[in-house]
Amino acid sequence: MRIVCIGGGPAGLYFALLMKKQNPGHHVTVVERNRAFDTFGWGVVFSDATMESMREWDPQTAATIEDAFNHWDDIELVFKGRKIRTTGHGFVGIGRKKMLNILQERCLELGVELVFEHEVQSDDEFADADLIIASDGVNSRIRARYEDVFRPDMMMRPNRYIWLGTDKRFDAFTFDFQRTEHGWFQAHIYRFDDNTSTFIVETTEDVFNAHGIGEMDQDQSIAFCEKLFSGTLDGARLMSNARHLRGSAWLNFGRLICEKWSHFNGDSHVVLMGDSAHTAHFAIGSGTKLAIDDAIELTRQFNAVGHDAKSIPAVLEAYEEVRRVDVARIQNAARNAMEWFEVVGERYADRLEPEQFMYSMLTRSQRISHENLRLRDRVWLEDYERWFAKRAGVDPTPDGNVPPPMFTPYKVRGLTLRNRIIVSPMAMYSATDGLAGDFHMVHLGARAMGGAGLVFPEMTCTSADARITPGCLGLWNEDQAQALKRIVDFVHGQTPAKIGIQLGHAGRKGSTQRGWEGMDQPVEEGGWPLLSASAIPYLPHSSLPRAMTREDMDRVVADFVAAAERAAAIGFDILELHAAHGYLLSSFLSPLTNTRNDDYGGSHENRARFPLEVFRAVRQAWPQERPTSVRLSTTDWHEGGNTPDDAAIFAAMFKQAGADLIDCSTGQVVTDDKPVYGRLWQTPMSDKIRNEVGVATIAVGAISEADHANSVIAAGRADLCAIARPHLADPSFVLHEAAKIGFEGVEWPKQYLSARSQYENNLARAAAEAAGRK
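The chain above was modelled as a monomer; its predicted structure follows.
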């Protein structure tokens, strides 16, 4: 094949040499705008995993690169006058120029044609090529030419950064955070050769402008950074090799994704690779990794399908399918890390102590978890667990052991939970006329014995017309109260768990069939009138709700108060108000469902007026020594709906009204929302509200193992974790997760103690067998 790589960065060069190595009959050319063996930039970072792949595909190149690498295991934080260091992280750094020179030399050895100092204007220059690799960077001219095909989405991020170097030799990947009178700056620092380190300085746009950096030239902005980080530089100077940039040389990072990566231009197949297809923020150092992995995967597909022109369409289709998944995973992690640095000042640096700030920084991408940190640096993590436990009021045992974060107690008002795990309210649709029966006793009793610190029945409705379905629980009469009291008494009498009540009103989502009969589908007979903020049905064929009148509001407030009083009398430990998921109170909060033009619609204050009225009345009726929480949809996942910023405003209002916790769920307000699912996918909203609003939070959403919960709680992203589906599959989820991580300090029901050792031994045996297979 005739192959042309436009752009001589890591993607183009590495693909060129791999293809030439796989089939020397290919005619491969790399065309680069810069001079031979010339490049811009300082150091790049690889993980050990990337090097393993390179050793597999071209050992000679990998060996040469490794000889030039600077390898380090340590990460050091400089923060609030402290230096904290942890090890075991396995990074390698190399000068960008050195790396490209190695790739260029290897290309020449293999017979790749290198053309320098040639600015490619169009892919038409290579009409004889079978395959054109558009590896010409984030500002790709080739991608721009076919913009309607590739459909790129470029989002410029708000932070400013400048990419510098220094001749100081750093022996750890160092993060230095410095506060000025206008806000925080951070430096990302790592050594990439024997004499030089990369030194990236970053800050927010507001801080950048407040210091007038945009009015400085490069020398002035460099002098500013030298003074700011003088303690870390210790007399060393900062250097720039971007004199081609005008002004202060500070940039905004552009996050790029493309809907499509390949195109047939009539003569040649054109495919995007590296930064021309996607970018990943330097906060996790994966830009070069993505480029190398692109080159490897495209080569792999040619090996699988065939090294000939007729195979190209199938190869490109498979290449994009495979790479899109991995790139999305890396970009999601990079986005998490990038956003952490974008809000680090007010959200974390001003709030967290150095120990927890370090943990939060290490886990910022959500790719590194609690147990992964234990594998990397057990000593550091155990020290941190002791620090965390001490703040939860737990002293180490004589051997120095403490519970992991999820098993530390949590105290709020007069309530103390034995651990941080909640059995989330989950609709069971199994009540008769709102009455809890034997099913609810067994369901909740089993999970209370299963180790959770707090269990909730499903959303309990405050009136017959507040139900979602005919099978929903209620608390609008004394018979229902006595049925629930039976369960409350069992939990208190037979388990160390606590039990809460979640009160709610279905609003426009009511009068529907039980979940297994037809989720959200209207009942066929025996329905009831619906209320909502506005007369908008949930589904086109749902019953039309009535926009609430003041008389309706008075009645609903009274119903909530009466239910709260009954819940208090029968001994529930905590009360949660359901103001999420499109139910009645949520319908007032969201502009998608609230189109009122009176005092209850429009502004945040107006949309929150009635939900706050309900909450204040409930809070007054609820015993002062018992806590309250509010469940919010912290984003509607829909254009024109509430965003996390809106949710933070509402959370602050409920906090001021007396809420002790905000339960941070999302979505389900409208049927055509577009949630972005994934591991811990709703935790960022909890993180935002907890650390910006300053209120305790409950995290929910794809938290499915102890490692997840420990990571969330230890980082300060939430105070409690509510776990739903894992508890449906395993009533003893918490006991079993404790056994899986080797924590022996959790109490099993005395009736079940004989099974504990067998369960733990089976886990140990399975782990040993798995290790043997490796």
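Residues 33 and 119 are 5 Å apart (CA to CA).
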